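stuck on this chain:
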Amino acid sequence: MPARPSPRPFVTANFAITWDARISTRNNTPATFSSPRDKRRLVEIRAECDAILASAKTIAADNMTMGLPDPDLRATRTSRHQAAYPLRVLLTNSGRINPKLRIFEKTFSPIVIFSTTRMTAPTRHALAPKADLWLHDSPAVDLAAMLTTLRTEYAVKRLVCEGGSQVFRALLLAGLIDELHLTLAPRIFGGRAAPTLTSLAGDYLPQSTNLRLRSMEVVAGECFLRYAICSAALAQSRRDKRD
């Protein structure tokens, strides 16, 4: 009998993009180009999830704490028997992460870091009191194993990926994204070096991924989209990898 797939959370991703598909400027400045309504949507999506995932680079660039500032959203979570704040999950293949980042100053929810054994001993020592460390003995974190760990060790049933583009790309290519939230903001950045949803412009994926539109809302010039990743596309991706 074929092996049963390992349990993992449902993975949704949330990004704001410009009309030329950039998620940031070429300098990776904080994503401030979308509206307050989009920022509200971000925390509403967070509130639905058990955990938030972002790369260490994204956390540093956006000065994120991965919080949930609305007390009503926290109250709704606790009424569903969830923790008031989602688990915070950081990802870094290189192991380079500043233990003095603002996120480590906030203790409202646990932090889990997935990295590799490339993380230096001083960094491990500095982070150990602040977060759970899961270090993979490989050049890059095994994303499927990471999700299995989150499901089995932390009871994460639903996770939202908030960046960056390389993390989203890796999860997508591994067939580990189930849903995508997109905000199309009425801005145009241009520039070859400004990152797109799946890294840099012109950096093609090995194959395309099909999406199915679930909902669309237009508010004050912004378009809020919600897509399901087609299961047929995921199945084909897995078959292609086996072949």
User: Anything to note?
Assistant: Helices lie at 36-48, 56-62, 71-79, 121-127, 143-154, 165-173, 231-242. The chain has seven helices and eleven strands. The first strand starts at residue 10 and ends at 18.
